[in-house]
Design a protein that fits this description.
Blueprint lengths: L4 E6 L4 H11 L10 E6 L5 H13 L5 E7 L2 H4 L5 E4 L11 H22 L5 E4 L4 H10 L9 E3 L2 H15 L6 E2 L2 E3 L7 E3 L4 E2 L2 E2 H5 L2 H13 L1 H9 L5 H16 L6 E6 L11 E10 L2 E4 L8 H20 L7
Parallel strand pairs: 1-2, 1-4, 2-3, 4-5, 5-6
Antiparallel strand pairs: 7-10, 8-9, 10-11, 12-13, 13-14
Helix pairs in contact: 1-10, 4-5, 6-8
The chain binds ligand NAX.
Length: about 325
C-alpha cells in the first residue's frame, strides 16, 4: 500500500472545506490508491460544525480514510503534515477596508506559517486558497524560515478553469481540447487571463476565436470578475468550483499532468521580468511528486500582454507593502 498522506485543511467547516473534503477522502486529490489522514483545523467557534462535517466523512465509509483529526490548535493541525490546504480566512465585514482585511488575514497566515515551520514535514506542499491568496502565501512562507518558500503556492487554478470554460463555450469545443490558457499575476480582478499561447484543437486559440474585441472586452473582464458574477447569482461566493480547482491543483502537482500547462501562483525567481519574492501566477508543467517547472520556452509578451502583466505585478507589490509589518526582517 502507498504511504498515507497527512493532509491539513484549514477552514474545514466552511463552504469550500465542505465541498472539498469528500473529494480528498474519495481519493481524487492523490489518486485512488493513496490513503489519507485528514487533519482539520478550525477556529474555536468552528469546531462544532466541524464535528458534523467529520461525522459526514465517517458516514461516507471511504476506504482510503485512515483518520480524521479535528483541532483549533495550528501546531496540532499541521503536525507531521505532508500537504496543507489553507482555506480558512476572515471574510470582509461591513465597512472593512481592503487594507484592514489584508492585515487581518495576513495575521492568520503568519501564525499558520510559524506552525507549519514548527510542526509539519520538511517537504510539505502548501496551497493557499484563502484571500488575498497570493499575499497570504507570501506571509506564510516568510514566517516559515526552515521550509523552502517554493513549497508555498497560492491558487489560481480556479481562474484558469474559468478561462478554459469560457473559451470552450465560445469555440463550441469540449474543454479538454482547450490547452495552454495562462493566468498571470494575482488572484484578483487585476489578473491577466492570457490566450496568446492557448490552443483549441491544437490550433492557436486567438486564430480560432478571431475576435480581439471579444477577448479584450468580454473574455478577460468576465474571468477577472467571475467571482462577483457567481455571488450575484448564487448569493454566496464560489465554493464547489473553488474546491474542485484545489483538487485539480494538488492532483496535478502530485500525480502529474505531463506536458499540460497549469497556472500556479508561486514565488517569483525573477523569470518573465517579474520582481523577485512576490507570489505571481505563471504557467508551469507538473511532472508529479510535488514538483513544478515554469514554462519558459514561450515568446515574449506583446505590448498588450506586457501592460496587463505589469498591472497585476504592481498590485502584488502594493499588497506586499500593506503586510510589511508581518514579514520578519
Ligand atoms: P467560509 O466563510 O464558508 O469558511 C471559512 C472557514 O474558515 C470558516 O469555517 C471559519 O471558521 C474558518 N476560519 C477562519 N479563520 C480561521 C483560522 N484562523 N483557522 C482555521 N479556520 C479558520 O468561506 P469559504 O467560502 O470556504 O471561503 C474561504 C476563503 O476562500 C475565503 O477567503 C475566500 O475569499 C477564498 N476563495 C478563494 C478562491 C481562490 O480561487 N483562491 C476562490 C473562492 C473563494 O472566494
Amino acid at each position: 500500500e502507498a504511504p498515507t498522506k497527512k493532509v491539513a485543511v484549514t477552514g474545514a467547516a466552511g463552504a469550500i472545506g465542505y465541498a472539498m473534503l469528500m473529494r480528498i477522502a474519495s481519493g481524487q486529490m492523490f489518486g485512488p490508491h493513496v490513503p489519507v489522514e485528514l487533519q482539520l483545523l478550525e477556529t474555536e467557534q468552528g469546531l462544532k460544525p466541524l464535528r458534523g462535517v467529520a461525522m459526514e466523512i465517517k458516514d461516507g465509509a471511504f476506504p482510503l480514510v485512515r483518520g480524521i483529526k479535528q483541532t483549533a490548535d495550528p501546531n496540532t493541525g499541521f503536525g507531521d503534515a505532508d500537504v496543507a490546504v489553507l482555506v480558512g480566512a476572515r471574510p470582509r465585514g461591513p465597512g472593512m477596508e481592503r487594507a484592514d482585511l489584508m492585515s487581518a488575514n495576513a495575521a492568520i497566515f503568519a501564525v499558520q506559517g510559524k506552525a507549519i515551520n514548527d510542526a509539519a514535514k520538511r517537504d510539505i506542499r502548501v496551497l493557499v486558497v484563502g484571500n488575498p491568496a497570493n499575499t497570504n502565501a507570501l506571509v506564510a512562507a516568510a514566517n516559515a524560515p526552515d521550509i523552502d518558500p517554493a513549497q508555498f503556492m497560492a491558487m489560481t487554478r480556479l481562474d484558469q478553469n474559468r478561462a478554459m470554460g469560457q473559451v470552450a463555450i465560445k469555440t463550441g469545443t469540449p474543454v479538454r481540447d482547450v490547452e495552454r490558457v495562462v493566468i498571470w499575476g494575482n488572484h484578483s480582478s487585476t489578473q491577466y487571463p492570457d490566450l496568446s499561447n492557448a490552443l483549441v484543437n491544437g490550433k492557436p486559440a486567438l486564430d480560432v476565436i478571431n475576435d480581439t474585441k471579444w477577448v479584450r472586452e468580454e473574455f478577460i473582464p468576465r474571468v477577472q470578475k467571475r467571482g462577483a458574477e457567481i455571488i450575484g447569482a448564487r448569493g454566496a461566493s464560489s465554493a464547489t468550483s473553488a474546491a474542485s480547482a484545489a483538487i485539480d491543483h494538488m492532483h496535478d502537482l502530485f500525480v502529474g499532468s505531463g506536458d499540460a500547462w497549469q497556472s500556479l501562483a508561486i514565488r517569483s525567481d525573477g523569470s518573465y521580468g517579474i520582481d523577485k519574492d512576490i507570489w505571481y501566477s505563471v504557467p508551469c508543467r507538473c511532472p508529479g511528486d510535488g514538483v513544478y517547472e515554469r514554462v519558459l520556452d514561450i515568446p515574449p509578451p506583446d505590448e498588450y500582454s506586457a501592460a496587463m502583466m505589469d498591472a497585476t505585478r504592481k498590485e502584488l507589490l502594493e499588497e506586499r507593502d500593506a503586510v510589511k509589518h508581518l514579514l520578519p526582517a
